[in-house]
Amino acid sequence: MPTAFAGFPPEMVKFLRSLKRNNRREWFQPRKHLFEQHAKTPMLELIAAINAELAKFAPEYVTEPKNAVFRIYRDTRFSADKTPYKTHIAASFSRRGGERLGTGGFYFSISQDVIEVAAGLWHPDRDVTLLVRNHIAETHQELRRILGDKKSRKLAGELKGDALTRSPKGFDPAHPAAEFVKMKDWVLDVTLEASLATTPQLYPAIVERFRAMAPLLSYLNRPLMARKPAKDLLADHW
Q1: Does the pLDDT value for residue 98 go beyond 90?
Q2: Beta-carbon count within 10 A of 92 CB
Q3: 7 phi and psi angles, rounded to 5 deg
Q4: Using CB atoms within 10 A of its CB, is residue 139 exposed (0-12), middle (13-18) or buried (19+)?
């Protein structure tokens, strides 16, 4: 894979480290231009580079960079933590046409401490959860094949997520896929060394893991896309 992103400047790490110590508006506002220069602008460049690779193996997840990147501002309305800013930068790549259907997507974040790369369904709505559980119950052998791929497992890790202690209503506790049916999230989530952030290896490391996670994401989204109205499918085609 050709190098399309040289890495974040060291000033990005320095800025996030300082923000963690000075997480207040009075500190951030005079330095907002530093965030834009050293963190947000390179992040948009990284997302564009990742999009170029997604176009080759998961084109339906290519996302406009400005829509993919998360805001630095925290939503503190329902949180005991009232610090106004996130101390990491992150981006997500949603399935085109699946926003209203609750489909899963790809995600990565970068902080001074760790790089996180993930894909899957996180805290889906009740109707989405039921669709996915039924799908797993009916096609669990396919799921096991996907999760059993040694190369992918090495890169993407094990399936993670919160789970019920007992099988949900309507599902046989003795079902061979009960362990997966009981889950409330279905996510592949791995961490990388934070030092990668300022190197050319960051970009291929993220893409390589997205590629390994793509089969599971496609599997989880299949029952959700299947309920899509025909007119929306036609619109996507054109």
Answers
A1: no
A2: 19
A3: 110, 160
A4: middle
**Which residue is listed with tokens 């406009």?**
64
Helices (H) and strands (E) in the chain, counts: 10, 5
Give the integer Cα–Cα distance in Å for 146 and 96: 23
Report yes or no: 137 and 171 within 8 Å, Cβ to Cβ.
Answer: yes
**3-class secondary-structure state, position 120:** strand
Name residues whose C-beta falls within 8 Å of residue 71's C-beta, 6 or more positions apart in sequence: none
Helix axes 202-225 and 126-148, enclosed angle (nearest 10):
120
Q: Check: CB of residue 115 under 8 Å from CB of residue 190.
A: no
Q: pTM here?
A: 0.92
pLDDT digits (tens, 9 = 90+) for 8-23: 999 999 999 999 999 9
Model confidence band, residue 232 (pLDDT cutoffs 50, 70, 90) = very low
> Would you say 67 and 91 are in contact if contact means Cβ atoms under 8 Å apart?
no
Residue 194's alpha-carbon distances to 5, 104, 112, 135, in angstroms, are 16, 25, 6, 37
Distance CA 131, CA 195 (A): 40
> What DSSP designation does 85 have?
B
Q: Is 199 left (phi over 0), alpha (psi -120 to 50) or beta?
A: beta
